[in-house]
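Is this the right way to post structure tokens for a design question? Let me know if I should format differently. Anyway, here goes:
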């Protein structure tokens, strides 16, 4: 015969388990909501990280900034600076550039790695890079002839061409 001990199932223990479960559920919901929060708001140029401000002073001195946007997406903060002539520069939270270009004017030559410059000189002479984007895995360049080339970030081997 099976005997159940009822002294462990008193009302106080049940209340403690209920509140512990409720607290865990609230915590899980809060984490899910926090991960899915997105926002975008304009900020002043002074709110950019110091590295981003230095970048803009070096590559776009005297440029007329129309808007600086701060965004939070997938728990990552980014800044996008938009100039009146159409140039856009995107930075990560530390102020490192991620994306530069306008689609009209060439990006600064110093931003293009030498391996990519050599490939472009050999295969696309006299065609400008009008947009460049980088992340941990790859570099993507958009050319003035509308072609987009993707390079591996470690070997700089061409991995994709989109025309």
């Amino acid at each position: 015969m099976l005997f159940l001990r009822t002294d462990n199932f008193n009302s106080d223990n049940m209340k403690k388990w209920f509140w512990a479960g409720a607290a865990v559920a609230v915590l899980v919901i809060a984490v899910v909501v926090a991960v899915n929060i997105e926002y975008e708001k304009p900020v002043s140029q002074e709110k950019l990280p110091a590295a981003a401000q230095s970048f803009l002073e070096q590559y776009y001195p005297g440029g007329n900034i129309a808007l600086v946007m701060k965004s939070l997406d997938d728990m990552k903060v980014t800044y996008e600076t938009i100039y009146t002539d159409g140039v856009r520069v995107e930075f990560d939270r530390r102020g490192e550039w991620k994306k530069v270009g306008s689609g009209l004017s060439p990006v600064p030559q110093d931003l293009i790695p030498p391996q990519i410059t050599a490939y472009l000189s050999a295969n696309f002479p006299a065609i400008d890079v009008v947009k460049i984007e980088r992340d941990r895995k790859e570099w993507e360049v958009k050319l003035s002839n509308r072609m987009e080339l993707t390079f591996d970030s470690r070997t700089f081997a061409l991995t994709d061409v989109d025309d």
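Format looks fine. Someone answered above. Worth noting: The longest strand covers residues 65-73. The mean pLDDT is 88.
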